[in-house]
Amino acid sequence: MIRPHAESFYYSDTDFEAMKRTMHSLREKGADGFVFGILTQNTPAQAAPRIDVARNKELVELAQGRPCTFHRAFDLISESNWDTALADIVECGFTSILTSGPSDGTAIECVDDLDRLVHERLEQLRGRVEGHARLPQIIVGGGVRATNIRMLWERTRAPAFHSAALAQSSVELVSDAEVEALRAALNKAT
């Protein structure tokens, strides 16, 4: 993941230069994909966050063909602006979007929004995509656990899911048991 700070998805010129250096370093060390997302700074004339097409596109190009996932910055885009945001993400060349839906909830709380994103919004975009552009895959994340992944899959039929799979008593340790339970629950669902 290329993210110089966790304060927001708005990055200064200094932050952006650090992102480029990090991407170069990780690419040289053999990274086979990247996760990042940059939004434009809000101005009085532009109250809603938007995709920073120029900067995201530059990073996608720096990935040199490795897949890039647009990070949960998408969650800050209002649903009324999803069509524009999705078109911008396609223009940048992202292969996937990691999202929980609107920023005020988990994937479970936003399952209806995720269903609309996966089944309606991407389909509407399909007819407008030019040339050989590929639609991004939706990766559902945000509170995904073994106890809810089956319901999320049944409701959204999303092609991919992301879970931190953290141990209940830790904010940094992955639980092997949770990973196994996630896989088992998804296998039963599919």
Automatic annotation (TrEMBL):
Transmembrane segments: none annotated. InterPro entries: CutC-like, CutC-like_dom_sf. One of its GO terms (molecular function) is copper ion binding. Gene3D superfamilies: Copper homeostasis (CutC) domain. Belongs to the CutC family. This is Copper homeostasis protein cutC homolog. The lineage of its organism: Eukaryota, Fungi, Dikarya, Ascomycota, Pezizomycotina.
